[in-house]
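#lab-general

N.A. 3:47 PM
ok so I finally got the sequence cleaned up, no stray characters, all 349 residues accounted for. can someone with queue access submit it? mine expired

B.Y. 3:52 PM
send it over

N.A. 3:53 PM
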Amino acid sequence: MRENLEESAEAGTPVGGVSYAEGPDGLRLPLIDIGHPAFRVALDDAALERMGEAFVEEQVRARGSWPRRLFDRFVLPRFLRRSLIGRGLLAAQGATLDGLTTYLLKLGPDHLDATWANELDRRIAASFPGLSLRLRLQDVAELLGAALATGLARAPDRPLWLVSLAGGAGMESLNALARLQRIAPASIAARGVRVLILDPDLRMTDFGRTALAAWSAPGGPLHGVRVELERAAYDWRDPESLDRILATIPGSALVAIASEGGLFDYADDAAVATHLRSIRARCPPETAVCGTLNSPGRAGALLNHGSRAAVRPRCLEEIRGLAATAGWVVVEARERPLNTAFRLERAGG
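B.Y. 4:20 PM
back already:
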């Protein structure tokens, strides 16, 4: 399968329904489509729980070995510098994991091109944390798609705006649209759709544009859908910028907002609450908000202990309480060993 995928990357044409687009640093990347068997994570809760337990056992065993601790501290960084994904993980020290590294992890081992990926890249992408990132994207896209399906049925004539906060290439929004195109094409066939990606990394938002162009071509999952993509530099530490951006959305629009691996994973409580208050004030009452959390449970704690990124683990009850202070309620959630995806609605309807 890998050979076919690499051949399609060189030719620039879809093979087996998988499309490609040029990403940062000139990398030609497969576009993650959660509706395609090559990317879909098809594991039940019991299987995920077993994998989570195995991950915990492996981490505990490794941490209890002083040779392993010495290896992780002094030797592993040298190996990671030889790997594209590894260098991204090292660069996340005290900060966020960059969009390209996150995207490469979500591709999985079989979709990493041999021209720029090595065996260590594939081992990292095949890890339980890598699988969890793929599942996180899938969960958010499905929650977002379900919320949109309900809203679109109630408002057949309104334009649709999807806002991706700290969204990288906005693949959760594009996948939600592709899912709607598969299961309810009439709901978006004649509707104006706009995807607005807010992210400081404009290289990844540019990749979102090329991804949309590829998916809009004949044979792509969004062919025939009138989708426009806009991007804007964005910093969640500047809440006034979000107010200005949201103010540009027409009052007649149907709006859905998502932050997969972004705002709720990294920002402090004050920033999260400020964002939710701004969305409540600026967006229509039926606006849905989907996001993700880093789990503070045992598996998540072990991962975060060894992680260099400045994540802020939160449990579902914490986000319930935080959302309530800003006028929102959690209406749906998917709790996994390493993360949780959730959907918010405005409190009081």
